[in-house]
Specification:
The complex is a heterodimer of chains A (71) and B (564).
Chain A lengths: L1 E6 L4 H11 L3 E10 L2 E9 L2 H20 L3
Antiparallel strand pairs in A: 1-3, 2-3
Chain B lengths: L7 H11 L4 E4 L6 H7 L5 E4 L3 H15 L3 E5 L3 H15 L4 E7 L15 H6 L4 E4 L6 H13 L5 E7 H5 L24 H13 L3 E5 L1 H5 L3 H11 L3 E3 L14 E4 L6 H9 L2 E5 L5 H4 L10 E6 L13 E4 L2 H13 L7 H8 L17 H11 L5 E4 L3 H9 L8 E2 L10 H11 L5 E6 H7 L3 H6 L5 E6 L4 H10 L15 H7 L3 E5 L5 H10 L4 E6 L26
Parallel strand pairs in B: 1-2, 1-3, 3-4, 4-6, 5-6, 7-8, 7-10, 8-9, 10-11, 11-12, 13-14, 13-15, 15-16, 16-18, 17-18
Chain lengths: 71, 564
Amino acid sequence: MSSTFIMHDWRLLERIVGLTNRLGCAYTRVDVKASGEHYTANIDFTGPPDALRRLSTQLNRLLNDDKELTL
Amino acid sequence: MSEPAYNGSQLVLDVLADEGVEVVFGYPGGAIMPLYDAMYNHPLRHILTRHEAGAAFAAGGYARSTGKVGVCMATSGPGATNLITGIVDAQMDSVPLLAITGQVPTHLMGTDGFQEADVTSIAQGATKRAVCVRSVGQLERTLRAALRLARGPRPGAVLVDIPKDILTARCEPLRPRMLNAPTLRVIEQRADDAALDEAAALIRQAQRPVAIVGGGARSANATHLYRAFCALLKLPHTSTINALGTAQPGDQRYLGMCGMHGWKAANLAITKADLIIALGMRFDDRVTGRPDKFAPDATIIHADIDPSELSKIIPAAVALRGDLRDTLTRLTERLSSSPSPTFEAWAQEAQALGGPPPRDRTPGAELSATDVLDAFFAQLSPDAIVATDVGQHQMWAAQRQHAAHPRNFVTSAGLGSMGFGLPAALGAQIGHPERTVVAICGDGGFQMTMAELATIRRYDLPVKILLIDNQRLGMVRQWQELFYDRRYAHTDLSDNPDFVAIAQAYGIRAEFVGPGDDLEAAFERLLQANEATLLHCACYPAENVWPLIPPGGAISEGMEPVTA
């Protein structure tokens, strides 16, 4: 599963990594670039399909909360 | 010393007040001293607890019982880390909570300074968001956004960490917006029409539907809509522990709590159902038991505000992503057109699948905890607020409670935090000074936070404390008996202190009841008291909670006592 995330708080990456590990998934590529006040992360995940599906929905929730409270 | 010029600390308090926050629960310390200094003459009410954990749990109890954001605060380092369990507790049960922590000055961050802890990293996985404010210019916007985020759409916990130099930095005084403590955000997310049509069609086709309501109904203030929905369809329905009190009191089609210690009729009806209507619940493992055997013949309709919950555990045939008030309103509209489907016969069949939870027989003359709780709830008004701690007494209380509203039963459901009950009750009493508030605690959990008796005394809170003392960590003991070959490792608390003497030492009225004492009279004295009172009930140590879904078992496989 390849995903692109736009983050306001780059520490979110730490949480993405933690959640990926917790759900028994892994990443094969992490590429983060800063652009102005945003950070764009391109991440390739591997793992069981069910876990990847849960990971995807939970990451969307994290990103929504990140949008709500930015510094 | 003269009053300081307007600074970040005053701004924090003014923003909280402007957002409608009426009370904060906290404990001062070094890094947060400027904020406490600003509190010296600020009208915002502060409740000083005796431990930061107590502050977080009290804020949770306040939030759960009122629907408003609970706010707690503590200093950096140990103060902040002591809040963490209460923060996670709120997050797990979708309770709106804002934690404000002091932090060492910006120039000391990252130097292992005195009382420095990287609390935002610690709290990252435990909250919706955990942020550290780096300039006074960010304070107002951050705090307002934090409160908004805590409120929803799905409520939860947010932590804002503020370095000491930001708290003392001069800034422009707040320009108030005079907001009125909103408990909910406007409906932003609505289930789509096609999904609602599909759900309505499935309900019309169903023969054996069962509704399961979760804490989302309380969060969405949808209790009345849920009751109307069930009444319209004459629908058998059940509740997670987090939603107890959502069903209309006296509703004969309500099957009781479902799950690990749920009522047999509820668990068996779910197992026989051909349609599950899951409303604001998340299929926790304590509810589903073995998930592949959960409702094996049922199609699932799942309504929730949080898309990450939909099909997370149990695949949904129809997912209704949206605010439950809106979902229930529009689903009910679709089913109101004549003829509405009704399921009266199935509801009667479901009700007959099981009676009240079975119980152990208590040998000898010792008090049975279930007898105590039966007698207690018989005297307690459904309008009273009950806060429980965690363990056997919690499950017995959950099985027996008759709350008239889901905000009347306050319990640590998802996280199961021992020590929650007493501070949560004091928080609920702060939110409802005129109402009867009862803390039901076990002897293990009570001792984790019993220092909050001092808080109860200080603020003259008339909290009633029912202490179910079986001199054991009862739930663990029960599992040792059933699943660990009776190897009772470290669950014996028979050297408990004299709880009556402890309460009295804090200035709390206290009474002991044991075998042969008049329970009903003791409850009457407890509930009639207009001051804080503790009733210490010495109970039989080996009584178990039944039914019990064994580890890895299906909810249709509830264990019951052999002698029942």
